[in-house]
User: What shape does this take?
Amino acid sequence: MEIIWLTFLGPDRFSELCPDNIGENEQFVADLCRTALNSLPFLALLDNVKIEYSATTKTYRIDMFIYCSVTVIGLTTAPSNIGAVVEGAISQRLGEIFSQVESLEN
Assistant: This one.
């Protein structure tokens, strides 16, 4: 089992999120990310999504923890790029609600 911690930044301009309702935003983003994770060829479970909004920079910061297991599909070792595969799937989905998405190193 691998644990992947991802952080993304997205501008509030042209975003589908509302800075006044972080709780609903977190649920919306979690549902979107779960859909992306379900398309992967291995088990990836979203544990937590936390969103913070910065009024000074007008950006959303999205932190998430994801558990990945490849043994359930018969692989004995995880692909070396499993983190990049997960990050790519999530970034693509977040691109549906932000005009641009930036991934931060953790």
The helical segments are 22-38, 82-94. The chain has one domain: 2-104.
